[in-house]
Amino acid sequence: MEKKPLAWVVDSTAFITDELKNHPDVYVIPLNIHFGDQQYQDGIDLTPEELYQKIETAEEFPKTSQPAAGEFAKVFESISERYDAAIAVHLTAKLSGTLASSMAGAEMTDFPVHFVDSNSLSVGITRLVERGMELAETGKSPEEIAETLKTYTSNFRNYILIGELDQLYKGGRMSGVQFFLGSMLKIKPIVQITPEGELQAIDKVRSEKKAMQYLVDRISESYQNDGISKVYLMHGGSQDKADELQASLKEQVPSLEVVTGDISSTLGVHAGRGTVAALWFVEKD
Predict the structure, then answer these.
(1) Are residues 193 and 116 in the same domain?
(2) Continuous segment of H or E residues that includes residue 209
(3) Which of 63, 68, 78, 107 sits in a 20 to 30 Å window from 273, CA-based?
(4) Keyword Lyase, does the record have it (predicted)?
């Protein structure tokens, strides 16, 4: 059987669109979510809505973990029979050991895998894969595609309104002082994945209404300054908030294409129900 030229491997923190879900060359490796001794695979046996329901009743706060290197090795061994090479795109290495685990898994095989640290998560991974597929159609080699995607990560823009401060704190993504002040003052923090892939608070707003308008204003500014044509509004079990944000955005920027979707269960552990994020790429030369 003649091998296909290229497979794509992503982790489950990516926004898995219907196109990616049904694409024959895309392989999604799930992260793990732990409630005490019980382990679930993200997107396979624990949906985002089930996660939020379990958090409300669970005695212990859930933890997340990356797939073991051996899990990646199994996938790479399997696809080596059908492909010449693979490109693996993973969530930022600054927030997870998933990329390192994937690289370790590849070292257990003889299969050529080219790695891309997305320096992001969710749509940041998704758009890199879509862009990579576009490049593959032009005849570029896997090495050339991977190198181009590493540069493309700098085009990522994101603003995230955290739904549950206590989950961000319990998950180790927020200092005790930040949590105390935010809780006491009812501040809505706006956080961001930096171009280096780190999570940082960039602003704080006094009400959710103002925070939602903050997101609309940032998107509108990028539309005016960068000519963006598409934005993703991702949410944590809050379709109503995403719809509200979309309606406000359409009033301000009617021609902008807007896509809404859920963040993965793994991301939901840290961000919580009620999170809303605006994510997009600036298409620079």
Answers:
(1) no
(2) helix 208-226
(3) 68
(4) no
Q: Which domain holds residue 118?
A: 4-153
Edge-first strand order for the sheet with 257-262 is: 199-205, 188-193, 156-161, 276-281, 230-235, 257-262
**201: CB partners within 8 A, 6+ apart:** 178, 189, 190, 191, 192
Q: CA 231: distance to chain centroid? A: 14
4 contacts: CB under 8 Å, gap ≥ 6: 25, 82, 83, 84
Between vectors from CA 122 to CA 222 and to CA 190, what angle results, nearest 5°? 55
The residue count of the chain comes to 285
Residues 130 and 216 in one domain: no
Cα–Cα distance for residue pair 168/242, rounded to 1 Å = 20
Domain end marker among 109, 127, 153? 153
Residue from 157, 156, 184, 180 nearest 168 by CA:
180
- Specify whether the CB–CB gap between 236 and 263 falls below 8 A: yes
Using one digit for the tens of pLDDT, what is the confidence trace for 30-58? 999 999 999 999 999 999 999 989 988 88
145-198: pLDDT as tens digits:
999 999 999 999 999 998 766 555 554 544 443 433 445 446 777 889 999 999
11 with 140, same domain? yes
- Nearest of 121, 134, 133 to residue 90 by alpha carbon: 121
Looking up residue 250, the CATH number of its domain turns out to be 3.30.1180.10
Q: Which of 153, 183, 207 marks a domain boundary?
A: 153
How many domains would you assign to the chain? 2
